[in-house]
Amino acid sequence: MNGSFPGGFGHIFGDGGKPGAGIWDAMDKLRAEFEQRTGGSRMARGDVRAAVIALLAEKPMHGYQIISEIGERSGGAWKPSAGSVYPTLQLLADEGLITSEEQGGRKTYSLTETGIRESEAGADKPAPWENLGARSGGNMTAIPKAGMELASAAAQVARTGTPEQVQQAVEVLDEARRRLYSILADG
């Protein structure tokens, strides 16, 4: 199956069809390849900012609520990390667009008057989680998920299959690769 995956899969199966130590490295490479080609779940800093402002325009929220709400509204395609949301909240506070207050042991954020004006100025634009569907054709997570499930099945065959089963799996993967490229060729 050389050429279908960076570095090929041949090194994974080892002698006698049993997996080599490289199976998990190959799965990590596969995951990275899918994330790179689909854009992963990373969005631009401005998108996080716009999403936070849009959500806080609806109601005050704490950071975890913001992260969860973006994930829910994007259908799971985008769930920003705390490492992108909390610095954005701090930046918005520094700019005077939001304030925070302690409620129930958590910081709850809300828009200031200036933040409300900025929210209203961007109200005619689609929310960042809506743009996400347009960029991805509306199905950004289906192919990476299917790819990871396929990689998991291949790893299982590599770990527990006989040499004959491993060879059959390689043939199936080769055929799947050819069929995927034929989809692009037909389009």
Folded structure, characterized:
The chain starts with 9 loop residues before the first helix and ends with a helix. Helix 3 packs across helix 5 (82-94) and helix 4 (63-73) packs across helix 5. It has 2 domains: 10-40 and 142-186, no CATH class; 45-136, Orthogonal Bundle (Arc Repressor Mutant, subunit A), CATH 1.10.10. It has helices spanning 10-13, 23-38, 45-58, 63-73, 82-94, 113-121, 128-136, 142-160, 163-186; strands at residues 61-62, 98-103, 106-111. The chain has a 3-stranded antiparallel sheet. The longest helix has 24 residues, at 163-186. With 187 residues, the protein is mostly helical. 64% of the residues lie in helices and 7% in strands.
Mean pLDDT: 78
Which blocks of ≥5 consecutive residues have pLDDT under 50? Answer: 1-8, 10-21, 37-42, 133-138
Helix content range of the residues, please? 55-70%
Tell me which CATH architecture of the largest domain applies here. Answer: Orthogonal Bundle
User: Regarding CATH, which class of the largest domain?
Assistant: Mainly Alpha
Concise structural overview:
By secondary structure, the protein is mainly α. It has nine helices and three strands.
What's the structural blueprint in terms of helices and strands?
Layout (H helix, E strand, L loop, with lengths): L9 H4 L9 H16 L6 H14 L2 E2 H11 L8 H13 L3 E6 L2 E6 L1 H9 L6 H9 L5 H19 L2 H24 L1
Antiparallel strand pairs: 1-3, 2-3
Helix pairs in contact: 2-8, 3-5, 3-6, 4-5
